[in-house]
Amino acid sequence: MRTLFIQNREEINEIIRACKTCYLAMSDNDFPYVLPMNFALDGNSIIMHSAQSGRMWETLKKNQNVCINWIIGEDLAWQDVKVGCSYRVKSKSVLVEGKVEFVDDFDEKTRCLQLLMSQYSDREFKFSKPAIENVGVIKVAIEKISAKEFGAKPVMPWNS
Asked: Structure pTM?
């Protein structure tokens, strides 16, 4: 079984969209801090929301550099059932690095929240003015993106 790099951006986007949760990693002084988050993919940006206070918000105000991870797949595979180091979880993973931008514009926050909801539902949603004003919305412009498939079957020249 092999680990393969995924180069095709559409395939990468499909992995992201198949997930319900991403993991946002940030640095709080010298300590990493990771949170599960709801998200939306918006072209070359990732949108997330939270309260406008708390540890995450304060950490991002100090340091806007973040890393985001998505993963799909949990099937166990092995090459030899008796050899522990031949076991692998078959999965696909995406990593994004970028900088957080805080969204303050009312109309843009509304658009971002609609995109967030469209990640999870086909319904139309409306938001009250206080709901928009009181939520924190962040965007992460994708500066670097990479993806891998773990536990892939090796491609043999006679099978291709």
From this structure: 0.87
